[in-house]
Design brief:
By secondary structure, this protein is α/β, with parallel strands linked by helices. The chain is 39% helix and 24% strand. It is built from 14 helices and 16 strands. It has a 10-stranded mixed β-sheet, sandwiched between helices. Strands 11, 12, 13, 14, 15 and 16 form a 6-stranded antiparallel β-sheet that branches. It is globular.
Length: 470
């Protein structure tokens, strides 16, 4: 099994005063976390001799300012954003092999490509939209350097909108608080008609007068989600702000009102020409925010998300997993060849009572075949909490969203009692269903059977309800 390697901090520099400030923030991070700093300069044309001397001089300056700093230098030919994002990707791939990975990319707010490429935006924006790891865009070094030296707390606003894109930003901010103390404010931008729609209600004339009640329900829903994700002992401060326009501008205004040192947002990594017609909150925040900004990519939307797990060889002398797959009602009757192939992308997992198998909105990347135990399918009802829709037992399959775009779970699934499942890599299975007719037909036929059984259960529940009412 591969071993995950250590992490480093990447910092781009073009030797400008703003880049020097970003490098000092990166150095402070490096000293605080004990992770090496890699200082990077990108050349758009070949001719590195003078640039190498400047880079060495900058590294020496940083060592003098931050005694004990471990800094390495790299110089590459290409556009700065492509070089930084490319290095971050290379480090990320190497991490799985036990080598170094990039924890964070740090850049300054200024720095542009040649005017002929203006449509592609600033280096900071482009790097944030391409990097597979978080990117910190520094506007003012002083809050960060003082915070990392233990002289003050960092005031952080993180945007959250219930989406899978914003969840990694929450986790990143939580990790930031472990580096040094932070004051965290969760900001949520909404508009009453949209919030009513999210809760399954309809907008009507005069409904805005009831927004205070809606805000109470929304805060309750946000608090519950934040407790589930990270803050078990109670979430940080919450701020809700109304906006009928661009969320990025309103979120930047909220952060300014809170006197934040840092605004953190998730990123769908919309870049290139497509960003001209798709709203990107992270891009808008980078443009409008007065403070430093961190963009945290969501693996589910990244072009460079972790690929499906590779097939592993099956030991012909150990057919235990194949036998378990064969014994499960969902796969009963499937050919031995298909079962042996499924075993290469399957594993057996056990969940303790109360453990979450899948979360609403998260990527549906696993097929769960229940062997034994009891699982509750729940729907989150704003203001009321989770409502149980169905209970599943051994022999059932948990959820079908892994088969249909956009491959997102629509419900929560929790273990009511200790539960054992056969977990199959859904992304690899989807590929096989397209490539291999036998696998595709076997799975599709059984899914139709599962749908029929679920509909029958619902019908019987309705009949029982009518009998009780009569």
């Amino acid at each position: 099994m591969s071993k995950e390697g250590p992490t480093v901090i990447l910092c781009g520099t073009d030797f400008t005063p703003h880049a020097a400030e970003a490098a000092e923030v990166a150095s402070a991070f490096s000293l605080r976390t004990g992770e090496p700093l890699v200082l990077v300069h990108a050349l758009e044309e070949v001719g590195a001799e003078a640039a190498i001397e400047k880079l060495r001089a900058e590294a020496e300056r940083l060592r003098a300012l931050f005694p004990g700093l471990h800094v390495e230098i790299q110089i590459q030919t290409g556009n700065a954003d492509e070089v930084l994002a490319g290095l971050a990707r290379l480090f990320t791939v190497a991490w799985a092999q036990g080598e170094q990975s990039a924890r964070l990319v740090i850049v300054s707010t200024l720095g542009r490509r040649a005017p002929a490429r203006w449509i592609l935006g600033s280096v900071a924006e482009r790097t944030a939209q391409m990097s597979p790891v978080p990117v910190l865009v520094v506007r003012d070094k002083h809050p960060f350097v003082s915070w990392l030296r233990g002289e003050r707390r960092l005031r952080v606003v993180v945007g959250y909108d219930f989406s899978e894109t914003s969840t990694p930003a929450l986790r990143w901010v939580s990790d930031l608080g472990r580096i040094a103390p932070c004051d965290i404010i969760v900001g949520h931008v909404t508009w009453p008609p949209e919030e009513l729609k999210r809760q399954g209600a309809h907008w009507a004339v005069g409904a805005h007068k009831n927004f205070p009640k809606l805000e109470v329900l929304l805060k309750s829903d946000l608090s519950r989600r934040l407790r589930e994700h990270l803050w078990k002992d109670g979430p940080p401060s919450l701020r809700i702000k109304l906006s009928s326009g661009r969320r990025a501008i309103t979120l930047a205004e909220l952060a300014a009102e809170e006197k934040a040192d840092l605004l953190v947002v998730g990123s769908r990594q919309v870049h290139g020409p497509s960003r001209l017609w798709q709203e990107s909150v992270s891009r808008g925040v980078l443009y409008h925010a007065q403070m430093s900004v961190a963009c945290v990519p969501s693996p589910a939307f990244s072009e460079h998300a972790k690929p499906p797990a590779p097939e592993r060889p099956v030991d012909e002398d150990d057919t235990d997993l194949v036998r378990k797959l064969e014994a499960h009602p969902f796969l009963r009757g499937v050919s031995g060849e298909v079962l042996r192939r499924l075993a290469t992308i399957s594993r057996e997992e056990t969940f303790a009572q109360g453990a979450v198998l899948l979360r609403e909105g998260s990527e549906a990347d696993t097929v769960f075949l229940l062997e034994r135990g009891l699982v509750a399918l729940e729907l989150n009802v704003p203001g009321k909490g989770p409502a149980r829709l169905e209970s599943l037992r051994g022999g059932d399959i948990v959820g079908l969203s892994w088969l249909f775009p956009p491959y997102r779970w629509h419900l929560d699934a929790k273990a009511v009692e200790p539960t054992t499942v056969l977990a199959i890599d859904a992304r690899r299975l989807r590929e096989w269903m397209k490539e291999d007719a036998e696998t595709g037909q076997a799975v599709t036929t059984r899914l139709v059977g599962q749908l029929y059984e679920r509909l029958e259960r619902v019908r019987m529940q309705r009949l029982d309800l009518y009998k009780a009412e009569s």
